[in-house]
Structure formats: structure tokens, C-alpha cells
Amino acid sequence: MDYEYFKNIRDIDNLTDIFRRDVVLSYMDNLLTNNEPFSFLILDIDNFKTINDNYGHHVGDIVLHTVAKSLKELTMGKGVVGRYGGDEFIFVFPNITEYQDIWQICFDILKSTKTLKIPEYDDMQITYTIGVSRFPLNSNNIDELLILADKALYRGKIKGRNCFIIYLPEKHADIKLEATRDKVYTPMFLHAKLYNLLTRNDNYQKNIQDVINFLGSYLLIDNVCIETDKNLLFQYTHPLIKKKKLLRYGFETIDQCTSSNGIFIENTTFSSKIKDSNPLLKKMVEQEIYSSVICVISAFGYTYGYLRAEVISLDTGRIWQNDDLVTLICVCNYIALMLYSLNVKELN
């Protein structure tokens, strides 16, 4: 880390007491000019608008200052952090471009939120989403490096936040940021699309598979399937995830652990204490499933099965958003009503 470069710089953001964006971008340009490799990160505080709305902007300012102090300590000796604007922060880590090295840095940043305390608001949970690009691996242009990191950040948000995405050309080169944003449907349009997929012809099995495939792709879920009393059906695995053979949990186990509404949500990796006391969590851990939503598919007292939406890759646990849950529950209801109207007795 070249501390000489920053020795005479006084351009500090007044609120967060870290560098302003132009300082960090200027440092990036200096590294590019000298052909020194580096990694560039964009970090968003998840659901920051909700913090402002629920607690007030003065508390939002406290959060920003506390987060900035933590991020500055985390980057000390390895890189530089600045405020990009709003609740976004940017980092440059010179001479750190190996995938595993930058993976570890991102993991440590996310892990730090588990011990982050907001003064006078100890119960407030803060999480981050991070996008990463690298020079010269991804580009030798500042603007393009920002775009690539923003693509990775956006993918992380769609995936459920509280995660990091490192841009890889072989996996992400075809993503068009503008086109991707255009595909963010309003809730009404999204539900209309799902209903249309499910009812567009008489081949209900193909229609269900199309809906499952769309859900997995749109919500960036690692694995989606329907568990019946005999099989796992309609399995979708995200193309960026290595497909693995999953096992049934069993209706008895699911019924024992779901809520009265037939819904189970788990967002974290599991301690041995919780795992041992919950048979469903125990089976999830055995299959290396780190985050899951399970919803019952039933109509008029008849249960066809359970929709399983799962994270089977461990960077961090997915934070399931309310819109995700509403969408998954509605799909279960659509499927159940369609099957009931067609007088289908079972999916096996």
C-alpha cells in the first residue's frame, strides 16, 4: 500500500471521515497509469432506505459513520476506502487480484457485520452487498471497471443481498446491465407473468417446470424444486452452481418444523445447538444447504407437496426479501389451485 500517495491529501468526507470518491478514483487512475494490478470493490449497505424511514436520517448518519469507521479499520494496511455517495462505499486493494485473496477480503468484510454495533441501537442488524472487478484481469479502463463492479453488485442484490460477487468474464460477460435492470418486473407484472406461464396450455407439468425455471433464473436462487411424498420434481439448478443430488426431507420432518401457514424460512448457517434441536435444519446441514424457504403447495385441505428454494453455495447466508417470499408463496397457491381445478391427485 503506497501511503506516500495519500500523505498530502485532505479530501475527506465530512460525515464518514474517510476519503471522498474522487480521491479513490484518482488513486485508481494512478495505479492504471503505472500498470499496477488492483481489485476494485463497490459496497452497498443493505436496506439503508428502511433504516432512514424507520429510525430517521440522523440515525442513518450514525450508521454511515459507524460503518465507515469499521471499513477503514478493515482495509488498513491493505487498501483504501472512500464514500462513493449515499450508502455506497468504494475500495481499491493494490496488488491483490488473485481470486482467493479478494474472496477472503470480501468474506472478512461481510463477516465483520456480525460484531458491528450501532451506538444506542444494538439490536440493529447491518449487512452489505459487494461487487468486485479487477485490473488488468477484467479491464484497463476506470469507467468499465466501475460498470463491471456495478454489474456484480446488482447481481448480488438480486441474489438476496448480504453477499459478494466477484466479476468473472467466463460467467458474467454476457450480462447487460441496462437489459438486466429492464427485467426487474413490478410485482403486479411479475405475478401476471408467472400466472400466464402456469396456465398457457394444458401441459401442466411443462408449465410448472417453466415457472420453476423462471423463478430460479429471475430470483437467482441456487436450487428450486418441488418435494412430493415420493420424489423431488421439477428441479432447477442455477447455471453458475454445480448441480448436486439433493434428498427429500420428508413430509413428517417438514410439517414438524414449518409454521402454521406451511412456511419455513432460514437465513443463516447453523450452530450445532440449533441443528441438533431441529430435524429439518439437521437434514439441511447434511446436504450443505445454507439458506432455504419452504412453502406448502395445498388447496382445500389436500397437500401436493412443498416448494423448496435453497442456497447451496456458501459465501454467506441469503437474506430473503419480503418480495421474494410473497412471490414464492403466490406461486405455490397458483400451482395448488391449478392442480385442484384439473382434478390432479398427485404430482409423482
Could you write a compact summary of the structure shown?
This protein is α+β, with helices and mostly antiparallel strands. It has helices at residues 21-33, 48-55, 57-75, 99-111, 142-159, 169-172, 177-182, 187-199, 204-219, 251-257, 272-277, 279-286, 322-341, and strands at 19-20, 38-45, 80-85, 88-94, 128-135, 164-166, 223-227, 232-237, 263-266, 291-299, 302-311.
Chart the SSEs and their pairings:
Layout: E1 19-20, H1 21-33, E2 38-45, H2 48-55, H3 57-75, E3 80-85, E4 88-94, H4 99-111, E5 128-135, H5 142-159, E6 164-166, H6 169-172, H7 177-182, H8 187-199, H9 204-219, E7 223-227, E8 232-237, H10 251-257, E9 263-266, H11 272-277, H12 279-286, E10 291-299, E11 302-311, H13 322-341
Parallel strand pairs: 1-3, 5-6
Antiparallel strand pairs: 2-4, 2-5, 3-4, 7-8, 7-11, 9-10, 10-11
Helix pairs in contact: 2-3, 8-9, 8-13, 9-13
CATH architecture of the largest domain: 2-Layer Sandwich
Q: Give the structural class.
A: alpha+beta
> Order of strands across the biggest sheet?
1-3-4-2-5-6
Largest sheet: 6 strands, mixed
Class of the largest domain, according to the CATH hierarchy? Alpha Beta
What is the CATH homology-level superfamily of the largest domain? Reverse transcriptase/Diguanylate cyclase domain
Query: Roughly how many Å is the radius of gyration?
Result: 22 Å
In which range does the helix fraction lie?
40-55%
From the 3D structure, determine the CATH topology of the largest domain: Alpha-Beta Plaits
- Number of DSSP-assigned strands: 11
Secondary-structure element sequence?
EHEHHEEHEHEHHHHEEHEHHEEH
